[in-house]
Amino acid sequence: VGQVGVGAITTKEMSPRMVSFPSRVIDISSGGSSACAISSDFSTYCWGYNDFNHFESTNKINYSSPTVIH
């Protein structure tokens, strides 16, 4: 569902892939179906499975690439 963060929801990756961010990432955390990163300007980006609304409380959109979370 986009856990890799490369813009595809059906791709199975067997090795690491580069993920693009608009600014330098200073911290990253991942779980079984999603990941989040904090950039040097303290923006939060998340991607992956969002069925339980853990990215935002207003939707259940799954993100296939890093998306700013407000």
Write the layout of secondary structure elements.
Blueprint: E1 25-30, E2 34-39, E3 44-48, E4 63-69
Antiparallel strand pairs: 1-2, 2-3, 3-4
Can you walk me through this structure?
With 70 residues, the chain is an all-beta fold. The chain is 0% helix and 34% strand. The protein is built from no helices and four strands. The chain has strands at 25-30, 34-39, 44-48, 63-69. It has a four-stranded antiparallel beta sheet with strand order 1-2-3-4, with no helix packed on it. The model has no long low-confidence stretch (mean pLDDT 78).
List keywords for this structure.
mainly beta, 70 residues, single chain, four-stranded antiparallel beta sheet
Rg = 11 Å
User: First CA to last CA: what distance?
Assistant: 21 Å
The main sheet orders its strands as: 1-2-3-4
Model regions low in confidence, pLDDT < 50 over at least 5 residues:
none
Q: How many DSSP H or I helices?
A: 0
Q: Tally the beta strands.
A: 4
Compact overview of the structure:
This protein has strands at 25-30, 34-39, 44-48, 63-69. By secondary structure, it is an all-beta fold. The model has no long low-confidence stretch (mean pLDDT 78).
